[in-house]
Input
Amino acid sequence: MLNKPIYFDHAATTPLDKKVLEKMLPYFTENFGNANSQHVFGRNAVKGVDEARDSIAKIIGAKPGEIYFTSGGTEADNWALRGVAHAFKDKGRKIIISPIEHAAMISTAKALEKEGFIIEYMKVDGEGFVDLDHLKSIVDDDTILVACMMANNEVGTIEPIKEIAKIAHEKGALAFSDAVQAAGVLKIDVKDLGVDLMSMSSHKIYGPKGVGLLYIKTGVRIESIITGGHQERTKRGGTTNVPGVIGFAEAFRIADENLEENAKYVSSLRDRFIKRVLAEVPFVKLNGPVDGAKRLPANADFSFKYIEGESILFSLDLAGIAVSSGSACSSGSLEPSHVLLALGLPDELAHGSIRFSFGKHNTVEEVDYCVEEIKTAVDRLRKMSPLFKAEGEINYV
Output
């Protein structure tokens, strides 16, 4: 075992960057005011929030007035989906989403279905890419929203958002994209993409937890889901999380300045890891795009045949390696990943999946150590697996 635990679960959350913490600290102490207060303490706080809003808007090609801060990506996803549904219910009741969206989207869509909205799912192929021809065949004049994440949180697939938005607009529907996994990792220009709404989260990019945003294009009408105050230009009630907003903007600034360098380094770790696992571990399947340029730089998702993913996760944890058996928001569920099922994987392979997501502080030494521990764990677990004894051993060469 290496001297310290290894963290390969950056898609779930990231450590707070020390520079981000330094930027936040004054807003816990001397600049502690409520950003909605009409005195010097409030003005100092709102000045920091305004600067943060300007900074984030500039990075994604938006106007500052189009950025609305939330408690995180889940709230932003809920707001986009519910807000559009309730604002446009007289125009139409059809909402189209991809079947591999985050649980925040899938659960909200199911709740809206109970309210009488029609939810349709666009098809995806075996690598997780949206079938654009199928989308064109199901979008119609009753469609009010088409929603697709920019990059998948489990298998890393980067979706053709620009094309999806164009298809939505041709039928008069709005286009929304969950960019929680993409922000700070992929270059984002909301105007070029053509989206009307987009969600992001701070803690995926070495920023603080508990803060995110929803981009709402100027002129787009959307109902509020949190009322009770005049914050965020009357759109979202609740005292502004000033230190969180400050930290979010600083984390985004650092990520954007180092985007190409970080992507190149992290993808080199990912590619080394994928190459070794495929070559040295039998009966494995790489989930998501084969072409590394079409998946998130940090993402590697594998299914290990004849073994439960949780068994591998616990084995690696004992070896000091932190990974995930799916998305962090659904890892407590015993159900197989809805993402992998949508990609066409059978239940047994979906149950045997592990997501590895690398970060800027990881090393080649850690990657190689992880591969060796995977080999040890898989070999031990398969020897205990009745399925492997019945089928897998026969296929060994």
The mean pLDDT is 94. The domain at 6-14+259-395 is CATH 3.90.1150.10 (Aspartate Aminotransferase, domain 1). The CA atoms of residues 94 and 151 lie 23 Å apart. The chain has two domains: 6-14+259-395, 18-257.
